[in-house]
Write a structure and sequence with these properties.
Keywords: Coiled coil. The chain is mainly alpha-helical and 149 residues long. The protein has three helices and no strands. The mean pLDDT is 85.
Amino acid sequence: PFLRLLEAQLQDERREHKEEVEALQNQVDAMKEELERQQQAFLQTLPLSPEAQVEFGLQQEITRLTNENLDLKELLEKLEKNEKKLKKQQKIYMKKVQDFEASQDTISAERRQKEQNMQVAVQRKEKDFQGMLEYYKEDEPLLIRNLIT
């Protein structure tokens, strides 16, 4: 059992490490693409005048920010949809919990009622059977047999 636990922990560590390496590789790829894009922009602005270079740089930055804003809006819409979905699920679960609690209250009330009825019945039986038993002498073997079984 201990070796299995260690083995499972090792596998979890390997999986987490692999995911981390993949995430870092994706970041490196994204940075490479950004660097290539910036190099292309630099090469395009090199022959331009300083004012044109500034304007081109501003245009590039406006384009980048616009794309970033669009991505953020898309993410916001996804999160809002997810929030609505989760709120609906929460309402459903809250209703189920309330129904369950109500049914538990009903069941416990029924149990208490049954227990009270059983106590009353037991008390009545005890009162009904207190005292001596009257029987015929010829029924004695049958009575003894019934008491034993």
